[in-house]
Protein 1
Amino acid sequence: MNYGHLVAAAVTLAVFGLGWIRKWNKALLTVLGLVTFWALAAFVMVRFGFDMNGRATLPTEAFLRPGTGKVLDMGAGTGRSTLMVLEARPQSTVVALDSFGESYVEHFGAPKGETVLDEGRERLRDNLRAAGVDGRCTIQPGDMREMPLEAGTFDAIVSAYAIDHLNREGIGKALNEANRVLKPRGEFLLMVIAKDFWLNFTFGPMLMHSRMVAADFWERSLRGAGFEIVERGMRPATKYILARKP
């Protein structure tokens, strides 16, 4: 996803060069030139705008403003959102929950000799160790739709690009579970992929899991699960909502 556009640019540029030498039709050369320009521009946006391999930053300073507390990362994956919280709020601790199942394999690859659970946990631990924050994080295998966690135990929750992989029924269950494990007045920072101009420009219809929903779908879903909306906003390819349990 980070470098695929460079492959497309290299191919179209090579074809453009061949056509230039052989004096192909100008209209065709123009199309090839535009495709090459798109591929290069899309690469720059993905690599430096989305920066999927870089350090994630909190989209709002209002999340866990006191800086301390026990946070749950729902759908932690390899730990990018976990690190985001631990580095932005150095007095906090995080429980990183992931099913390490089919969705994990789809996005991060199949295991090499170990089970998905074992390799998933180890990959997450490696990233935490590399950042020097492994002492403040616990890894918890589990499904966000039915979490093996006690009610009312977390001060805040973050979920980044995870809940939007579920179907509508699964989304409802996950949000209800988030409400259950939060303490009263606990915060929930939800980050989902948004099909905005930048995502359409770079990938078009290829990111199919970010299916189209009504503009107020996530707000309605959060309210339906018992949350009140505190803040909402946009980043390139991302919508974030800060909610609170009454």
Protein 2
Amino acid sequence: MHIGIDLRCLPTEGEEGAGIPHAARELVRSMILASGGSHQLTLYVPRASIGDKERSIFEECCGLAGRIVKLETATGSSLRRALQRNPCKLLFVPSGAVAPMVRIPCVPWVHDIAIFEHPEWFDQTLFKRTLTTNLFRKGLIRAPEILAVSQFTKDELVRRFALDPSRVTVTLEGGDSVLGRLAGMDLAAAKQKAKRRLAERGVTQPFILYLGTLEPRKNIPVLLEAWLDARSLFRRPVDLVIAGRDGWKLGPIVKSLEAARTYKTEGGSRLHRIEAPTDEHRRDLLLAAELVALPSLYEGFGLVALEAMQAGTAVISSTGGALPEVVGEAGISLPPDDVAAWAKALVEIMADPESRKSLADRGKSRSVNLTWERAARVTLDVLTRIQT
């Protein structure tokens, strides 16, 4: 079986990427290993996207009956030219956005359809949004089958586009493979080392962590307000770390961050802003945090929640999107707009180490069943079925 993989979603060289690029990289690596050379895989990759992480994937691919086709750019026209010169019978699209005018069957991996549900969250002109959403819709209609990262995303697809549910298969995701392998004494030791490394960076007190891109749907102002309300009630100083890349429509988020910085410090609690953490820094933050807080209004999956559970860290999340599906009974779920409930929960959880440990243990146990190996097997099964 010959499968092409459209990796135009990978960031340019030197950037690690997060979200969809991270998920695509991890899934494709696991697909290569799961195929074991039984499938011919062709990776179509923009030349500027081939960094150190990608090279390791590509070396594995070339060693397992695969090949790399370098694209001049990340455009659809560059992909189409490459497909003419180096054809495949089926194209898997991890970004979910199928390029127009591709003549072979394409299977998109859909992460969310937030742009359809909440266009106001995105920094696009009406013209560009109309163009991209129409192309996305056409890609779904033409697809022989569709992959979705969660049951929530599948349900959204079926509802909005009137799709036959049997055409949509849920893959789930797999989090961070390094964190996933940590357990027992190794996990405890990793947590201590992470705390020491963060202390060298100035994060010396117990802290609550938000990790992810700063954008409207992440609902960061609610977390900031809840933390401000809770500070005077903490039994000891509790910092808040906001870590992640700047996204779009940052006005209200920046305003909330500035307001939090100007408030008089209560009991020594401090706010830290960490921009663009590396993969290693992300792991340290997840391992060292007392609590990971995710107040998102909408998530197609909830990768950070899974990574926190893999790190053996307690999670409090909103009921937005797929977060309850990922966290289940292993975390605390709250309405995303209830500041008082969030403040109360932060105070109670931070005052109760036994509850935090119980949540962390349940999260770690739950995360074992969510792996990239599993997602890769599901993906390969669907792609194989299409070609047989």
Protein 3
Amino acid sequence: MGRPIKKLYIGNRNSTGIGGEGVASTTITGAGTGYTTGEAVTFSAPQLPGGTTATGTVVATAGAVDSITITNAGSGYTSAPTVDLSGEGNGDATATAALTTSTQNAIAISAYVPGGSSAVVGDIVSQKGSKTYRVTTAQGTGECQLVAAAIPTEGQMNITATDSAGDTYYVKKLTNRTAVLLRATGTEFETDAKVKWGDSAILNTQVSLTN
């Protein structure tokens, strides 16, 4: 199958043992009344299996919520969780959460695992063949075939590459050093071009892979 990709780039995309992200911060959209500093905030559960639910506490002045202190960022979020303050104060404060955007080595994928219901973000567990990978998403774990398609169907997955202009390609085949590309919005490289890949894109030389 050619030289497989390095273990550095497969598996979980952060150090917590699960892919996805944690909660970086919250923005108060309604201060509410009757709140006390230190009261607990409830975040919704992460999307990826094995993830940890974020936790936080209120910082309040004269009963109004000023901010939320993140006491545990959690893990396994593929989209921002809801923030529930209804059990604190008068229950009328509101907030939105933002996820971390840290650079991670492991490659992000979109995969439709066998028995799942759709293609969703996930992690590569291991490489089984030149285009076959064992992957984990919020819908389970299974083997998927790498395809150069915008929306994978059951048993398929995709990987997106980006050029120096920020335009995209689908990866047709991936080895330790190069990716064979199919144009999406990108024009820097031709379809079927074999291009170096890494953490950053270099004009006419290298693409970056979503991680």
Protein 4
Amino acid sequence: MKSLLSSTKERILSAAEQLFAETGVATTSLRTITALARVNLAAVNYHFGSKDALIEAVYERRLGPLNKARLAQLDQLEQEAAGKPLSVAQIVDAFVSPVAGLTREPGKNGLVFSKLLAQTYNEAAQYVQRLMATEHQNVMRRFKTALAAALPALSEEEVGWRLHFMSAALHHVIANTSYMQWLDGSEGSEADVRTAVEKLRPFLVAGLSAPAHTALS
């Protein structure tokens, strides 16, 4: 019974994720989700209780493992550094490489994942706000501490801004791989997400390592 219930819950989550990524959160009805998942509405109510709770569960299923992977990599690097500051490149790698890693896992479509992230900064922002205010906030604080140690010449405020820019740039790039497809007329693939992340790395390292901001005259 436990296996059956788990399978039902996973089907609902996968169907909701696919539909949210393709057509958006607001326009996706529970009826559409249940049809794709091949379950009845009672199953959604049993596992999640409401559409809002289902939306949060969809994002938590992706953002949770992503943030855990980031912290695991940061922890390992800091342990190996034995108290010495990490390099900016190491911090960037710990932050961005888990995103590319998610697209390599069997059964997880990189295009769906990137489209889902696009919704995070648009209509789904209200649903993931609570997730961002707890788990994600703690992750960002850890990275801010590491980045401040790597860039001692920068103020705490400046470090915070640069961390924000890194996060925003990463999410924008992986959510808009279609921009490059538009330029060269290619078809999208999971490799596009990995390629975008690889090309973004040196850009982020350079930006984070730039001299302190000076006001324009």
